[in-house]
Each structure stands twice: as C-alpha cells, then as structure tokens.
Amino acid sequence: MHERVIDVEDLRVRYRGARTDAVAGMTFGVAPGEVFGFLGPSGAGKSTVQRVLTRLLRGHGGRAAVFGRELHAWGADYYERIGVGFELPAAFGKLTAAENLAAFAGLYRRPARPVRELLELVELGAAADRRVDGFSKGMRMRLNLARALLNRPELLFLDEPTGGQDPVRAAALREVVREQARQGTTVFVTTHDMTTADRLCDRVAFVVGGRIAAVDTPRSFKLRYGRPGVRVEYRVGGRLDERELPLDTLAADTELAGLLARGAVETVHTREASLDDVFATVTRARL
C-alpha cells in the first residue's frame, strides 16, 4: 500500500485571462483511509483542486500524484478506482432513481454495488421507482452520493456532501461516509460547512486565497486556539446570570463553591473554541 493516496506538491492553477493563481502553491498529502477536508469560502480554490485531482482540469503546475502515479499518467482506468459526488447533482430527470444508478453502473468494468442496497443506504429506498425530475435538492444530493459509491471506490471525492439536508439526514450521511472510511476508502471532502468539517474529517486544511493556511485535526485546532474552561449559569435572587471560568483556577474558585453549596447553579457547560473561531483566527476570515 502506498504511504499516501494523494500526494500534492506546489500545485498551481491559473485560469485563462486571470491575473492571479486560483491555486497558488498548495502542498498536502492524504493517507489511506483518511477523511481529509478542504474548508474555505467560495473562490478559495477548493473546487479547482478537486477538478485537478479528478482529472477534469489539466495543465496545472507543480506535482500531483494519486495511488503513487502522476495524474497525467492515468487513463480511463483511473475512474474505475475513484468515486465523485459534486455539489451540483447530475442525473437523468426522466429516469427513476433506480434506473439512474443502473445506467451509471453500466459504465464500470468492475462489479457495481446493488442499486436497491445503495438507495436504502442514502434513505431513498422508498423513492427508488420515482422519476428524479420530481426530487428535491436534498434527494438529488443523496442520489449523487449513491452514484459515487456504485463502483466501490478506493478514493471518494465529495463536494458539500450534506448540502440540502436537514440536521438528522446530514448526520446520517456523515455516518455513511465515515463507514466508507472505516472500510478503507480514502475520502477527500470540500466544504464551507463547519459542522461537516468538524464531525466528519480526520484532518482539515483551511483554504483561503488559493493557499493552505493551516492543516490539523479539528480537535487539535480547537485545543490549540481555544481557552479551556466552563460556562456556569446560576440564579441568585430570581435573576439568571452566568460566569466563564478557566479550568486551571476552577478548583480554587470560592465564589463557584459557594454557588454550588447553595444549589444556585443551574447549568455547567464546557467551553472550547469552535472551528469557526479557529478559522477566523488563523485566516482572518469567516465563513
């Protein structure tokens, strides 16, 4: 097994007529079975990198290799090993969900996963025989994910995988993707959604202005830039108030001890930096 599934060094892309690079010297690697996220605002270069790595955009500068082979050296066999689910769903509207997946399954040489099984996986089992032109955006996005998983990919590219979903379905889709990673699939995610980055990715790259500002695990980011402590809500004389206390002085705080002794404390919450806070600190920008 290769040490890195994706290996990128000094990647540069400039679109025709542009004065600056859309991707300005990015270097990163993605390990086997890792869920790696590109987090940044629109126009940061996230989708351009995905287009390079899926071989939809040629003529880049720098080095980009996948499965130990330079991208330019791959042929059609590359698409037998990867799955792609972009933010804008692509499907045949006059076909049913099941017919769509069956049509795409016929493009692969390797055996495809059972269509009905995939539709159940993304909570579209009940809509398997409905025409796609009647689907909501969220349903189309789930069909997009099912299509990306058809060929049992070793590497999965996803763009805004929870777009158009309610919180419950978004959590379910994140679990579907995590399960693919547990089975050994490497996942490359582009998103501007903090929850997706925080709860789905093993590591996250902050991307701004065509460059990578920082790379780390979501937890390490929050611990490094946060001030660990607790927020205490208490009621005195009928009035609800709150205090924020650092962990290192918590045990010696006599006022808190008194509030606890009188039964005045109503809630205690841990406090850490959100990924949004960390992104703003590191990049001086907010999503």
UniProtKB/TrEMBL annotation:
Pfam families: ABC_tran (PF00005). GO terms for cellular component: plasma membrane. It is found in: Cell membrane. The keyword Chaperone does not apply. InterPro entries: AAA+_ATPase (IPR003593), ABC_transporter-like_ATP-bd (IPR003439), ABC_transporter-like_CS (IPR017871), ABC_transporter_ATP-binding (IPR050763), P-loop_NTPase (IPR027417). PROSITE patterns: ABC_TRANSPORTER_1, ABC_TRANSPORTER_2. Keywords: Antibiotic resistance, ATP-binding, Hydrolase, Nucleotide-binding, Transport. It is a peripheral membrane protein. This is Fluoroquinolones export ATP-binding protein. The lineage of its organism: Bacteria, Bacillati, Actinomycetota, Actinomycetes, Streptosporangiales.
